[in-house]
Amino acid sequence: NNEALQLEILNFLDKNGKIEDSMNFKFEGKNVDQLVFLGALNSLTSKDMVVYKQIENEKWNVTAEGNEIAETGSHEAKVFNAIPAGDEGITIADLTAKVGPAAKIGQGKAFKNKWISKKGDRLVRNVASIQDKTQEDLKIIKETNNHSDANTLKDLKKRKLIDRQKITSYSVEKGEKFSTTIVKQATDITYEMLQNGSWKDVSFKKYNFDAEGIQPKGGYLHPLMKVREEFRQIFFQMGFSEMPTNKFVESSFWNFDALFQPQQHPARDLQDTFFLKDPATTNEFPEDYLERVRNTHEKGGYGSIGYGYNWSREETQKLILRTHTTSVSSHMLYTLAQKMKENGKFEPAKYFSIDRVFRNETVDATHLAEFHQVEGFIADYDLNLGHLIGVLNDFFHRMGVDKIKFKPAYNPYTEPSMEIFSYHAGLDEWVEIGNSGMFRPEMLRPMGLPENVRVIAWGLSLERPTMIKYSIDNIRELLGHKCDIEMIQNNPICRLEKKMGREL
Ligand code: PHE
Fold first, then answer.
1. 24 — alpha (psi -120 to 50), left (phi > 0) or beta?
2. What pLDDT band is residue 504 in, cutting at 50, 70 and 90?
């Protein structure tokens, strides 16, 4: 127990003033591991109760072979002891049989010490008795881990009977705040301490400025925002500008009527669209344009016969949560037509938007009442379906989607219209990834755009590619109240393998 050791150190210092060398310090009757001792010292020094210095020591240990000699004597002593006193001595064969493998090295040493000599083919004792210095030296080293004679140490090390070990120990003295009791330190000042004034007497733990900090909890990007940024970069690479999308509430006029979507269209039902209650309507429209839209719905024009119904102003005034970002595109195209009027010339344009849209859907694993759309359009002279197919190939290629197919589709505002399918290798299936088309003259001409200005456009959801990228199979785990905050904190940065464009 570290605290018991700390107390023992303090009591020792109280009695003796100093610990000369922690190597000799005993705790509960035993030597203390120096690392454990250091742990106790660091606790005490952090409170300024002690100060210490490091001591670098050398320690000699007896090896297994050295230990054997310390117990039973050196090889040369064994050889001497095996030779009987007197003149007849012993044969080398008998000696080897008696002493074992030590006989060979032992003989050499014993000859060198002049303890034995040869008489014919026998070995005899040269002296009456011997002093086994090797055994004595090893016994000393075993006891004290040291020897006073440096040459002895060198010699025994060479014979692999001893080993040197380097160890660090400590000399310890009383510190500024020495005491024999350990006061628990406070880590923080509390409201109570401030209230009752006890902070004046409390000992505070020092701050450890080297400690690793806690990961900050703020500022993580949602995966949808990461993928959005990748899409934005693709559009920017292709020379598109971003449309302002900060308008969740839109009139039915810009969301539907301007797009030549008839007022009886099922998408405009309560079941599909969120209508606002307060305020429920708006009355701010460019009236001349609104009249042209009414006319086109009722009677047609520009080569169209229209829908032939009575267009209602009440219906167009209704405020809704926008059901698609095409409302933003229609606004922008109208603005471009206004600019053309001012400049006397139409300027080709490429625009995109990525933002939230709202639909009155029954929520399930693949549908939410709100999601994000990615939408782009190009307005230029004499564009045709070939341009749309080319641009879509380029766009999806830059996202890393190479196999795409088109299927004829229907939108009230585009003709022709195409759904875009991509081959999903994992599913071994063609999956729908977007919708596209050429905006109808019934949409563009009332705005004031000339007949030969055509607009190609496409849209897709941001959620689908994000779910594929992050392997999320339930949309409710991505967005909404069931979304796991930790998922957002931990999910990696997004890199669509953006490729170079395909020139048209
Ligand atoms: N507005 C369409 C949708 O909500 C997408 C689209 C945009 C289709 C542009 C054609 C042209 O799915």
1. alpha
2. very low
Is residue 324 in contact with ligand 1, taking CB distance under 6 Å? yes
376 CB less than 6 Å from ligand 1?
A: no
The pLDDT tens digits for 3-26 are: 999 999 999 999 999 999 999 999
Cα 409 to ligand 1 centre (Å): 11
Distance 361 CA to ligand 1 centre (A): 17
Exposure string of 272-289, with b = 16+ CB inside 10 Å and e = fewer, is ebbeeeeeeebeebeeeb
Q: Which two three-digit tokens encode residue 285?
A: 């429209």
How far is it, in rounded angstroms, from Cα 345 to Cα 329?
20
Q: Where are the domains of the chain?
A: 75-131, 223-490
Name the average pLDDT for the chain: 92
Ligand 1 atom at shortest distance from the alpha carbon of 435: 8
Name the residue among 58, 108, 60, 39 with its Cα closest to residue 80.
108
Question: Quick check: CB of 437 below 6 Å from ligand 1?
Answer: yes
Q: Fold for 223-490, please state it.
A: BirA Bifunctional Protein; domain 2 (3.30.930)
Say what the pLDDT of residue 473 is: 82
Q: Is the ipTM of this complex over 0.90?
A: yes
Q: Are 123 and 84 in contact (CB under 8 A)?
A: no
Distances (CA, A) of 201 to 186, 188, 204, 244, 286: 11, 13, 9, 62, 76
